[in-house]
């Protein structure tokens, strides 16, 4: 008699959060609003999907081993453009496929592979403005018409990018950093032949410290108004700039946080997205009434929103406790993918800590009913110009499931707390952020939340960089370090990384490694590698153009030479993975490393 098979073990909640089907906010075609494009992980890899809202049919557009997320619909809804790189290296070409399906074809024949630097598609169905970035050429921007050779309309060594193309295709807005400050762009509007129509460049005290960004041309024929973002009052706010007359209309919304906006489809109003202290909310601004009306959304974070032709607004919402969902102000859930539903997690608690540069905002999660002192994970966000928010994140939730408290710190350099806070990290790069993290660490211990003998410093990208730098400059503060796709050897990283990031590093540190070697040395984790005491886990994508593999290998070699406790996991992708199984594997390895070394 054979023994019955044991039942399969129940999948843990942390794994369900990664496997549950997710969708992005659908993009829709301006002149065919029933046609949409979104990203989903339904097959286990994040890919592009076409959605015909009239019939309800959804069709997978791309199918690549390492996934695809960069895609755009043409305004007429006939074509889907998507970016084709090699295994996550971000270096490739644009291809296009008919919305209804068929073979892929080169979208811009004649343009060699490059890093993307923006894309704008014309309403005529045959015109595009394509931005490219390479180490050899810097940034070039090309006018592409189907059936014709691309025409170069812009070139500069510094970073730049395509902003938008006007409704009638006669005006092209670009962002550029010809002045050498990659953190604060200037704007230029070009004609299709490359000649300049208008310039806008905010300065302060003779130095360029105020950024501008393109938010979009008015979606109305013959309208020369361009919606832009500015920082003139110490935070991001929208403004309307008529590039034909030069008139600038400041909306003076008087909201305390960063504000972004997009046009309503008829051009009579703006959809306003307000981000403040790790939460966000939506408003409609009406030009005729000069009135701001709140659009009700649940407390949490709106990570994307778009106004539809019928006046409704669709938005992607989540909170730390509740998984993301695409909602509509009309009251419906817009997209509800079939299959397993993601479990929720615990809400965040807000903590404000006095730091060396001002009050620091931290978000804290801990297991339900748990009392300290707890093993605690400091999960440091990337960017650096980004911020953690009250939004759903499967990684921190996995740590909470395993009994850890999780603290996320919006250090100086983070967005959402004003321009001065974001810009504060210049020159003493990495060291300033770590001062803020240290202040929150001290609060966590003295408050009784964190066990000082079980403190993990972790993060990805810039957060991985801060992890390695923190382990070396604060060796007695941390019990364990887990760094994903980090900067480890800043000088080598600079020489190997993509061109746009070189420009950012020159801005942050005030020059190249040859011009300011002392700053690169002070901010590089490899400078302090011999002081690292804690066990170190590093994961790295072998095709990563942002935090390239060679500089990580240099750091690892130094750990090996001194017999330091460490493990390295290399995977065949770029700056992170779009494959669900790979993401789960990485989290499992991190949890296991912590368990083995902390108990």
Topology:
Blueprint: H1 13-19, E1 27-29, E2 32-40, E3 47-52, E4 58-60, E5 71-73, E6 79-85, E7 92-98, E8 105-106, E9 115-121, E10 127-134, E11 138-145, E12 151-156, E13 160-165, E14 172-176, E15 186-190, E16 196-200, E17 212-217, E18 225-230, E19 237-242, E20 248-250, E21 258-263, E22 269-276, E23 279-286, E24 291-295, E25 301-307, E26 313-318, E27 325-328, E28 333-335, E29 349-355, E30 358-365, E31 374-380, H2 394-401, E32 405-410, H3 419-423, H4 431-446, E33 450-460, H5 462-473, E34 480-484, H6 490-496, H7 499-509, H8 517-522, E35 536-541, H9 549-561, E36 566-571, H10 580-598
Parallel strand pairs: 31-32, 31-33, 33-34, 34-35, 35-36
Antiparallel strand pairs: 1-2, 2-3, 3-4, 5-6, 6-7, 7-8, 9-10, 10-11, 11-12, 13-14, 14-15, 15-16, 17-18, 18-19, 19-20, 21-22, 22-23, 23-24, 25-26, 26-27, 27-28, 29-30, 30-32
Helix pairs in contact: 1-2
Describe this entry's structure for a reader:
This protein is of the alpha+beta class. 17% of the residues lie in helices and 36% in strands. The protein is built from 10 helices and 36 strands. The strands form 8 sheets. The chain has an 8-stranded mixed beta sheet with strand order 29-30-32-31-33-34-35-36, sandwiched between helices. The protein has a 4-stranded antiparallel beta sheet with strand order 1-2-3-4, with no helix packed on it. It has a 4-stranded antiparallel beta sheet with strand order 5-6-7-8, with no helix packed on it. Helix 1 (13-19) runs antiparallel to helix 2. The chain is globular, with a radius of gyration of 24 Å. The model has no long low-confidence stretch (mean pLDDT 95).
């Amino acid at each position: 008699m054979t023994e019955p098979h044991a039942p399969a073990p129940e999948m843990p909640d942390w794994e369900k959060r990664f496997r549950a089907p997710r969708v992005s906010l659908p993009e829709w075609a301006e002149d065919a609003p029933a046609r949409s494009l979104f990203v989903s992980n339904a097959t286990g890899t994040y890919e592009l999907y076409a959605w015909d809202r009239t019939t309800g049919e959804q069709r997978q557009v791309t199918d690549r081993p390492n996934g695809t997320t960069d895609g755009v619909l043409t305004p007429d809804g006939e074509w889907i453009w998507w970016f084709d790189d090699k295994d996550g290296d971000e270096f490739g070409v644009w291809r296009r496929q008919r919305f209804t399906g068929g073979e892929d074809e080169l979208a811009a024949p004649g343009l060699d592979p490059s890093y993307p630097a923006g894309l704008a598609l014309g309403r005529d169905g045959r015109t595009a403005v394509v931005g490219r970035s390479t180490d050899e050429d810097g940034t070039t921007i090309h006018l592409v018409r189907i059936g014709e050779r691309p025409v170069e309309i812009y070139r500069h060594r510094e970073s730049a990018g395509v902003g938008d193309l006007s409704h009638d295709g006669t005006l092209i807005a670009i962002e550029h950093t010809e002045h050498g400050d990659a953190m604060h762009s200037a704007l230029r509007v070009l004609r299709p032949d490359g000649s300049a129509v208008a310039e806008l460049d905010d300065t302060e005290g003779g130095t360029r410290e105020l950024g501008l960004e393109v938010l979009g041309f008015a979606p109305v024929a013959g309208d020369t108004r361009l919606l832009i973002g500015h920082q003139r009052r110490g935070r991001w706010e929208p403004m309307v700039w008529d590039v034909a007359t030069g008139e600038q209309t400041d909306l003076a919304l008087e909201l305390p946080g960063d504000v972004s906006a997009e046009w309503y489809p008829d051009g009579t109003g703006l959809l306003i997205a307000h981000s403040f202290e790790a939460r966000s909310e939506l408003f409609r601004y009406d030009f005729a009434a000069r009135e701001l009306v709140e659009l009700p959304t649940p407390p949490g974070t709106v990570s994307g929103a778009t106004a539809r032709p019928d006046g409704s607004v669709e938005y992607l919402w989540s909170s730390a406790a509740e998984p993301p969902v695409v909602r509509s102000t009309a009251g419906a859930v817009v997209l509800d993918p079939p299959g397993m539903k993601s479990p929720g997690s615990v809400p965040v608690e807000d903590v404000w800590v006095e730091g060396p540069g001002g009050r620091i905002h931290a978000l804290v999660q801990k297991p339900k009913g748990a009392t300290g002192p707890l093993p605690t994970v400091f999960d440091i966000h990337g960017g650096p110009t980004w911020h953690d928010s009250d939004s759903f994140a499967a990684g921190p939730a996995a740590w909470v499931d395993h009994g850890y408290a999780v603290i996320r710190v919006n250090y100086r350099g983070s967005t959402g707390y004003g321009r001065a806070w974001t810009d504060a990290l210049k020159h003493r790069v990495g060291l300033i952020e770590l001062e803020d993290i240290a202040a929150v660490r001290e609060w966590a211990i003295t408050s009784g939340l964190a066990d000082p003998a079980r403190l993990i410093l972790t993060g990805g990208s810039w957060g991985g960089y801060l992890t390695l730098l923190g382990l070396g400059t604060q060796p007695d503060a941390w019990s364990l370090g887990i760094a994903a796709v980090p900067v480890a050897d800043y000088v080598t990283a600079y020489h190997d990384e993509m061109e746009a990031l070189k420009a950012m590093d020159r801005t942050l540190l005030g020059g190249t490694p040859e011009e300011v070697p002392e700053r690169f040395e002070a901010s590089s984790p490899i400078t302090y590698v011999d002081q690292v005491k804690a066990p170190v886990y590093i994961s790295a994508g072998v095709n990563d153009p942002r935090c390239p593999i060679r500089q990580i290998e240099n750091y690892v070699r130094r750990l090996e030479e001194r017999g330091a406790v460490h493990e390295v996991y290399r995977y065949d992708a770029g700056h992170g993975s779009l494959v669900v199984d790979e993401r789960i594997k990485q989290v499992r390895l991190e949890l296991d490393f912590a368990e083995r070394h902390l108990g």
